[in-house]
Design a protein that fits this description.
The complex is a heterodimer of chains A (250) and B (228). Chain A is of the alpha/beta class and 250 residues long. Chain A is built from 13 helices and eight strands. Chain A has two domains: 102 residues; 125 residues, no CATH class. The relative contact order of chain A is 0.12. In chain B, helix 4 packs antiparallel against helix 5 and helix 6 crosses helix 9. Classes of the chains: A alpha/beta (250), B alpha+beta (228).
Chain lengths: 250, 228
């Protein structure tokens, strides 16, 4: 039986859990294993896990490696991942607040969905990260800690980019995704952030700038995101839940 | 989830085989049949010629699917909630919404390829046909798929067949532009950013140049440099 895309992380990540129990140190599962846990949309690479750890603990974490398992502190190449049976990538940037906000699932510590959303907003250099932000927001909108998301977006200076993605997702859904008070306060935070003048996401040259012109102007972001990116997420996520969102406001 | 999808797909393909209906698996499962190590959505996409569509529709109805038409796809749905299945079917042509470019299914000879880590063989597009459908759209997910296919099958791409199929589809000008664009992405940092954003991995220099060599080989034949 294939476990690659099982919803249960205990089943899907049994290979990792076996190694984690040998080390009694704080960690968070981040990256595609965490995104899949929250949105159940884009599958993770089967044998790859990103683990955020305290920098001071890094030497300890090298003990995770075993036969056929590669441990990296920098991003591995595709060829390196293909060559190893299992791959663990350590990101030594864990900090206490983020660890306190963790979510335990099947005994495994995952980054909070709110932190993960902001990680994706921050790192976006193509179409995939914004799509995964939309997928998490849609799949988790009833469970999200909106005050915490607001506070963290403000601290990280991501209010403009988060705001435009939330409202673009709302356009594709035909419904308001976030509570009105949240959008209002996020917009006030955004007004306090400097306008970068950079395209967002940064890399895609071919995508037109005019996909969501009113939203881009409202949030002060040079948004370079074709409508099919979030539209595909909405289409895919509607398969198993009917219309993924019951319109309340729009 | 994937097990249920594969089981459903297997049953559907077997029913098609028994009725003599030729159908192709495209989308994520179609690419996976070529062995790519990638992230995907777990949706089912099929392609069928216009001639074979009525017979496929009958098979789908017999399997309990409800059929509807939505834009460029016919959609077959069955069940509800977590148990739901939805299949998108390209009838007659695989169409890219953005460019409105069409790749006629009739052109495809197709091949059967085993799906890795399963005991199912899937009827899929030829490598060249699959590359054409991905290059037509060239969204980030398509860029990753094309580069992965070129890396894994660098020596197997039949460039003559590729251009014959492109010309038969009337897509020469579009594909020439798309290959030029892909070449630019591979020469610049853009492909690395797209790869990293999608997979969380780096594309090393060797991989980038391998893919670029194949793209150049494809472009060279179109420009007549290799025709002699």
């Amino acid at each position: 039986m294939s476990v690659a895309y099982a919803y249960s992380p205990g089943q899907r990540l049994a290979w990792l859990a076996d190694r984690l129990i040998r080390l009694d140190r704080p960690y968070l599962i981040i990256g595609s294993q965490a995104t899949y846990q929250y949105h159940r949309w884009l599958t993770p690479l089967e044998n790859l896990a990103l683990i955020q750890v305290y920098a001071t603990d890094t030497p300890e974490w090298w003990r995770l490696a075993g036969v056929g398992c590669g441990v990296f502190e920098t991003l591995p190449t595709t060829a390196q991942v293909r060559a190893a049976q299992k791959t663990i990538v350590l990101e030594p940037t864990l900090e206490p607040g983020r660890y306190r906000r963790r979510q335990m699932i099947d005994g495994l510590a995952f980054v909070a969905s709110e932190d993960l959303c902001l990680d994706l907003v921050e790192r976006a250099r193509g179409e995939t990260s914004p799509a995964e932000v939309a997928a998490i927001l849609i799949a988790r909108h009833e469970a999200l800690d909106w005050p915490m998301l607001l506070a963290q977006a403000g601290q990280r200076g991501l209010a403009r980019r988060l705001g435009v993605l939330i409202e673009a997702t709302g356009v594709e859904l035909g419904a308001d995704l976030a509570p009105a008070w949240f959008v209002g306060q996020l917009h006030r935070l955004a007004e306090g952030e400097p306008f970068s003048g950079q395209d967002y996401p940064a890399v895609r040259r071919r995508a037109i700038l005019e996909a969501y012109p009113a939203l881009a102007e409202r949030w002060g972001v040079r948004l370079r995101l074709p409508r099919h990116v979030i539209g595909k997420v909405v289409l895919d996520l509607s398969v198993h839940s009917g219309p993924v969102f019951r319109p309340g406001g729009r | 989830m994937e097990d249920r999808l594969l089981s459903e797909l297997h049953a559907l393909l077997e029913a098609c085989r028994q009725r003599g209906v030729e159908v192709f698996v495209i989308g994520g499962f179609g690419v996976r049949a070529y062995g790519s190590l990638l992230r995907r959505t777990l949706d089912l996409d099929l392609a069928v010629t216009a001639r074979n569509w009525p017979a496929l529709a009958e098979v789908l109805k017999a399997q309990g699917y409800h059929l509807s038409s939505a834009g460029i796809w016919a959609t077959a749905t069955k069940g509800e909630g977590e148990e739901a299945f939805e299949i998108h079917i390209a009838v007659g042509d695989v169409v890219d919404v953005q460019s409105a470019a069409r790749y006629p299914v009739e052109i495809e000879s197709g091949v059967r390829r085993p799906l890795p880590d399963s005991d199912i063989a899937l009827p899929v597009f030829t490598l060249e046909g699959l590359l054409i459908t991905k290059l037509i759209a060239l969204r980030d997910s398509d860029v990753v798929d094309v580069v992965a296919l070129l890396l894994q099958h660098a020596e197997r791409v039949d460039v003559t067949r590729f251009w014959n199929q492109v010309e038969e589809a009337g897509l020469s000008a579009l594909l020439k532009g798309r290959l030029a664009e892909l070449g630019e992405m591979l020469q610049s940092e853009e492909v690395n950013a797209i790869w990293w954003d999608r997979l969380g991995l780096m594309l090393d220099e060797g991989e980038r140049w391998t893919a670029l060599r194949v793209v150049r080989r494809m472009r060279a034949l179109w420009m007549g440099e290799a025709r002699s």
